Amino acid sequence: MFPVALDLTQLIAAVAGAGRAAKQRIRLLDEAGAKGVLVFAPDADEELATMAGDRLVARLPDEADLDGIDVLFVADLGAETETRLAAMARSRKVLLNTEDVRPLCDFHVPAMVRRGDLLLAVSTGGASPGLARRLKAHLAEIFGEEWADHVSEIAGARARWREEGVSFADLGKRTNALIDEKGWLS
Question: Is the model's pTM score more than 0.70?
């Protein structure tokens, strides 16, 4: 596995499915600030329809739909449909995650703790989602909501330092000094 953070304001993501896992993927994409998320759900219940709003497409994606998608999350559709969608996605070089079906996945979604711009992620590569969830809960206790403000504060300081022409090496030193001064990791 190789961790990356996708900027979903620059990519088009879609979710295909209508169950619990599909709803969770929609929530995660919305929390990440994803733009242009399409939700393909032929059997959307009221909760999913509300979550999706005008993004809802009341059918599964076809090949033409996939031509405009960069990342596809598939969940709760059954093995035959998921395998068919995976083949279509791969033929179009669409990054694919199929909930809890490792052989169909190009990537895994880590357990995440989000504090503003701070994103902490834990992955076991799909080997133990339970362990990843447990570690996520532990990190959420250690890194409380105040970390969103910490990140904003340090981002502001970094922007000022860059305007002053501070070198890259000195940015790192000043960042560490500010963290120590504030006692954020004490």
Answer: yes
